């Protein structure tokens, strides 16, 4: 696992009980090999959401991190509370029917890594580099232009 030298983790921004529930949810996904990976996914989903709130550019999760974002969104009340209290704004997520080109994916990945590091939180680059199938989704930050993860997931808050 590769991380930056930051000491604060994404998981530190949510209650331990919520972190455990989200980890349990991700563990049940067939693409998640074990609990340790699920914990890393949830941690980085929180880091991603902080980056979404801070970034003026469209950014997108890796396919694994997208599992954590989806798990969090399904716990709507907790997600809304986190967005309002920690991020100061709600980060929408809306399905997208088109997959981005390899060029769009590459550009989005570079923007995303820059945004993640700008949060000052620990970045687990191993979770960001792993590929696996994810659902077809996007959000509305930039009009759902499909340049987030391989199927178009990205953050939604227009700045």
Protein architecture, described:
By secondary structure, this protein is mainly alpha-helical. The protein has one domain (10-129). Helices cover 49% and strands 0% of the residues. It has helices at 16-27, 35-54, 63-74, 76-87, 102-118, 125-129. Helix 2 packs across helix 5. The longest helix is centred in the N-terminal third of the chain and has 20 residues, at 35-54. The N and C termini lie far apart (33 Å). The model is unreliable at 133-152 (pLDDT under 50).
How many domains, as an integer? Answer: 1
Largest sheet: none
Beta-strand level of the residues, as a percent range? under 5%
H/E element order: HHHHHH
**Can you give the mean pLDDT?**
82
**Proportion of residues in helical segments:** 40-55%
| Tally of DSSP helical segments | 6
Radius of gyration: 14 Å
The tally of strands reads 0
Distance between the termini: 33 Å
What class do helices, strands and sheet pairing give? mainly alpha
Quick structural gist:
The protein has 159 residues and is mainly α.
Element layout with pairings:
Elements (H helix, E strand, L loop, with lengths): L15 H12 L7 H20 L8 H12 L1 H12 L14 H17 L6 H5 L30
Features:
mainly alpha, globular
